[in-house]
Amino acid sequence: MKENLNISTDVAVIGAGAVGLCCAYYLRRAGLSVAVIDRSAPEERCSYGNAGFITPSHFVPFAAPGAISRGLRWMLDAESPFYIKPRLDAEFLRWLWKFGSYSTRKHRRYAMPVLRDLSLASLERFRELSQSLPESFYLQERGLLEIYIDPKTEADCREVLELADRIGVKAALLKGEALRELDPRWKLKARGGLFFPQDAHIDPAKFISALQKHLLREGVEFLQSAASGFIRRQGRVAGVQTEHGEAPARYIVIANGSWAPELARRLGIKLPVQAAKGYSVTVETPGDLPQIPLICSEAKIAVTPLKGRIRFAGTLELAGLNTAINARRVAAILRRAPQYLEGFDHLPETEVQPWAGLRPCSPDGLPIVGATHSFPNVYFATGHAMLGISLAPVTGQIIAGQICSEQTDLPVEALSPVRFN
Length: 421
Ligand SMILES: Cc1cc2nc3c(=O)[nH]c(=O)nc-3n(C[C@H](O)[C@H](O)[C@H](O)COP(=O)(O)OP(=O)(O)OC[C@H]3O[C@@H](n4cnc5c(N)ncnc54)[C@H](O)[C@@H]3O)c2cc1C
Known about the structure:
The chain has 10 helices and 19 strands.
């Protein structure tokens, strides 16, 4: 990465996570000159150590009926998978209020087909990217199995199954032999599971690395610096101010994940995005690995088979912009996983290096993609929460399409930042 940028480009993208890099990819493919500005090392991005799931299965938005009451119940448990840190921060309280008001059946009905269409389109883009990027990012189309141990969870699974059926997402409830035979390399202790055959997974660190290498070859400029504000000329935004000087550009894409509200504020825009911290632990696992990734339903732990490694990821902590690692929550992930799986009873709590990332969460569970009325050449691409890998390619496609004034069948109005006004 360069530390100085003296050229002017068509587009400056702030943020080199999966979302920013995918925006840069589709913008460059459309023939525009692009600069990407990021201040951090790859492993500090949320896009680095996550579970890597591509999830048509996640068509129910984060803001869904029961989310707030579950959050409040779990607030008192230091090892719970979902935690809201109580704090008197006006933006956070406004976000929480909005989140509560979107957690309805009506909103769920509205958001489900939007998420379905975006994730299926994104999966198609992943297939194309796996052919066109210079390095493999291990795209595996093997489905996703969400397993449960508590008999009461079966009712929730049946509800999801019914919703999936209603909107045409493929899913099946498996029990007994059918469950165990799906991927016999997993020694499951589960009572049952929901299988989503359309899901896929990747190695997310390899994905961002392959994208960045490709973009460098395609002449995209990379600047290692913090964006601190914007160049303003005659009421327009004419580029990005960084710690290392100016990056003039005709269009700006703000794709800096959980930190997007800081930059939005410089434009007088209140962007409702809150960081939700999550952790992962990756364990070297020699021998024949299972192939189908899992979600341990009650513990909310994602388990991803990567090449020679297995990753356990989980926890959603609404605790502001900090990546400090809470050892008790990481230990809880390692302790709870063996309740679902044989062979992981001695996960090396002291030997593994936990990773933490901040998911950028919008209050309605839909990404925030598009421009506002006040600055028509400034686009936001953030708020993807637990879907930022899954939806990164389709987000890049949408941003490039909007900047190039192309028509689309994708449900882009549902993603507009203007919806919160
Ligand atoms: C434990 C865990 C598991 C997850 N599992 C999945 C999964 O299986 N599937 C899925 O789809 N999603 C998953 N997610 C969510 C996903 O990781 C995020 O939604 C996604 O990575 C967000 O990408 P992004 O590009 O918006 O942000 P980031 O990857 O965080 O990138 C933002 C970048 O902007 C930079 N930046 C910030 N401010 C500035 C500034 N002022 N100037 C310059 N640079 C700046 C940051 O340094 C960072 O590099 C998971 C997340 C976690 C924590």
